[in-house]
């Protein structure tokens, strides 16, 4: 099974792209658990919540891995939580950092912040998306991850992502 992660800064179309790719490749996307978790909290989230979110994200992904699909599209992974934790709290749990090293994905689609910012109560960095993009790119490079930058508005973004995934499927 080809495992693809959609990643990048806030408001770059990750969830939309994950859902579109899943539909195109007739698979089920691994949803981002963080949104579900934080929307249901009766308090502001804190540093400790990030490891809870990370562990549940992995559980959901592992459950969907049990179902036979040619492609698994993940709407996030622990690299996102690591960067989020480092930016927000200046640190990241050892468990998240160690688990990143053991989780294997075939390719990352790094969404460029070329879409207009859309307000969402859970988004925190409307002015810092370019810097966050650089952090994601540096992290992926530092970990030696295979990735492609995905940009473009509307159908162009989806077309570029489909082309990358199709090329990976041919070579896999």
Task: Summarize the structure in words.
The protein is of the alpha/beta class. Helices cover 52% and strands 11% of the residues. It has a single domain, classed as Rossmann fold (3-Layer(aba) Sandwich). It has helices at residues 14-24, 33-39, 47-65, 78-89, 94-102, 129-142, 155-171; strands at 2-7, 71-74, 107-111, 147-150. Strands 2-1-3-4 form a four-stranded parallel β-sheet, sandwiched between helices. Strand 3, helix 6 and strand 4 form a beta-alpha-beta unit. Helix 3 (47-65) runs antiparallel to helix 4 and helix 4 packs antiparallel against helix 5 (94-102). The termini are close together. The mean pLDDT is 92.
Write the layout of secondary structure elements.
Blueprint: E1 2-7, H1 14-24, H2 33-39, H3 47-65, E2 71-74, H4 78-89, H5 94-102, E3 107-111, H6 129-142, E4 147-150, H7 155-171
Helix pairs in contact: 1-7, 3-4, 4-5
Do you know the CATH architecture? 3-Layer(aba) Sandwich
Helix content: 40-55%
The parts where pLDDT drops under 50 for at least 5 residues are: none
The biggest beta sheet reads: 4 strands, parallel
How much beta, percentage-wise? 5-15%
List the domain count as a whole number.
1
Secondary-structure class: alpha/beta
CATH topological fold name: Rossmann fold
Q: List the strand order in the largest sheet.
A: 2-1-3-4
Radius of gyration: 15 Å
